[in-house]
Write a structure and sequence with these properties.
This protein has 484 residues and is α/β, with parallel strands linked by helices. It contains 18 helices and 13 strands. The protein has a 5-stranded mixed beta sheet, sandwiched between helices. A 5-stranded mixed beta sheet has the order 8-7-6-9-10, with helices on both faces. A 3-stranded mixed beta sheet has the order 11-12-13, with helices on one face. Keywords: Hydrolase. This is Ppx/GppA family phosphatase.
């Protein structure tokens, strides 16, 4: 079984799923409507009260997770945690409360996971589709065919900022609603032509807000009773006629959710008008199901991150043969160093595949350019934390080690750094076929035993070893080479 926890801007949600006969069956759900986005102060920081509420919610979710035997858990945070200026202060508290790492994912990655969830629920491999998700702080629009994602974009507009800006105090008028829709359309208009050109056979709305809009429309037979633009305009007219969220009394939605629905409706109408969508279907699938599907894929060795690395290599013209040789050498060295962190081993391999990506910018300081690209590139499947880890290893592949001194305090990461540095040296010197007699240890110091006469056969390696001894010595690590 797998668990997905979604720290959204409106609600925190949890799904526990079990894959059975190719389908993900949800065995437990939980929802806490904490409205985290409402806790953002004018300076962009989450208030102490909002942070305490988030921590309490994570403790409750942690208790639920501990009731199940789980193969993997993934906790993802979306827009509010992306934009909160004090998110890094809250993150360790949330992780301690739930007992698992919390990943702040990019808007594009959020969109990809949403699409994966919709695709898993539909199981229509050839369908060309558009998916729209209106969240509390952002809106994701994704186009694809079957399981394949072809366009994905995250727009910085959601139910909370939209409601706060255009429906202050819960008041809703015709002028303010039109202004809200036009403001949202202005954000979508630049991307609209790309999506219209892509085309689709069916459109789906995946967020809780869209499902709430659908519920009100269908229960009250507004418009034609479907998720069409005409029906949404009829819902808009009923909201305007009420004048205030407290006066809206149609069945299908709780009173405290009306303000969220109003903001979401203005965004959804804007998106449908700009992208040329006349009608859509609301679907009970999205981010959490996408996270569960991704966890299952990783368990089956079908990892999106491998494809992301290959795509990045092609994009920047990386020499694949050199990259693969470096990765193979680093794997052998990491194993000889008796490192135990298998997760770190995978990230070392990916780092080696992209260790020369910075040469697309300049050969001078290429490792620094590569580190920047790895930290900031859009790499599907990777979290910001993972990209920072790989950036650290790539930055440390050559030159002084003072820049990564703090990271070297983690023993297996220090071994990975040594592995990528030596792998780059051995790849350049083309000695990867002559490493069988090499012994390598790293505890209080680095010890390398070479067969007698080996350094004479590879004189450039001897020069590199001298440089390595100086670099490691600067961070207080001895480096000794012995011929045996």
């Amino acid at each position: 079984m797998y668990a997905a926890v979604d720290l959204g801007s409106n609600s925190f949600r949890l799904h526990i799923g079990e894959p059975i006969a190719g389908q993900m069956h949800i065995v437990r759900t939980a929802r806490d409507p904490i409205r985290l986005a409402a806790g953002l102060a004018p300076d962009g920081a989450l208030t102490p009260e909002a942070m305490e509420m988030a921590v309490r919610s994570m403790r409750d979710f942690g208790a639920i997770l501990r009731q199940h035997r789980l193969d993997a858990v993934r906790v993802v945070a979306t827009n509010t945690m992306r934009v909160a200026t004090n998110a890094e202060q809250l993150l360790p508290r949330l992780e301690a409360a739930i007992g698992h790492p919390v990943e702040i994912i990019s808007g594009e990655e959020e969109g990809r996971l949403i699409y994966m969830g919709v695709s898993a629920a539909l199981a229509r491999p050839g369908e060309q589709r558009l998916v729209i998700d209106v969240g509390g702080g952002s809106t994701e629009v994704i186009a694809g065919r079957g399981d394949g994602i072809e366009l994905v974009e995250s727009f910085s507009i959601g139910t909370h900022p939209q409601s706060a800006a255009w429906f202050p105090g819960g008041h809703i008028g015709a002028v303010s609603f039109d202004a809200a829709v036009n403001a949202a359309r202005a954000l979508f208009e630049d991307a609209a032509s790309r999506y219209r050109a892509h085309g689709w056979q069916a459109a789906y709305g995946s967020s809780g807000t869209i499902r709430a809009i659908n519920e009100v429309i269908t229960r009250n037979r507004l418009g034609d009773g479907t998720m069409s633009v005409d029906s949404m305009l009829a819902l808009r007219d009923r909201l305007i006629a009420a004048g205030h969220v407290d006066a809206f009394d149609l069945p299908g939605i709780k009173r405290e959710r009306v303000i969220v629905m109003a903001g979401g409706l203005s965004v959804l109408l804007a998106a449908m008008q700009e992208f040329g969508v006349r009608a859509m279907s609301a679907i009970n699938a999205g981010l959490r199901l996408g996270v569960l599907s991704d966890l299952e894929l990783r368990a089956c060795r079908s990892d999106r991150r491998d494809s992301a690395i290959q795509d990045c290599m092609r994009r920047f013209g990386v020499d694949g043969e050199r990259a693969r040789r470096t990765a193979a050498i680093a794997r052998r060295l990491y194993e000889r160093l008796a490192a135990t962190d298998d997760n770190l081993r995978r990230h070392l391999q990916w780092s080696c595949m992209l260790h020369e990506v910075g040469q697309a910018v300049s050969h001078t300081g290429a490792h620094k350019h590569a580190a920047y690209i790895l930290e900031h590139a859009d790499l599907p499947g990777f979290t910001n934390r993972e990209q920072r880890l790989m950036s650290t290893m790539v930055l440390a592949q050559k030159g002084n080690l003072r820049k990564v001194r703090e990271a070297l305090g983690e023993p297996d990461l220090a071994r990975a750094v040594l592995a990528i540095r030596l792998a780059a040296v051995f790849m350049h010197a083309r000695v990867d076929g002559d490493l069988d007699g090499l012994r390598l240890r790293m505890k209080n110091r680095i010890e390398i035993d070479t067969p007698r006469g080996w350094l004479k056969q590879h004189p450039t390696v001897a020069a590199w070893f001298d440089k390595e001894a100086a670099a490691w010595g600067e961070v207080g690590v001895g480096f000794q080479v012995t011929q045996v």
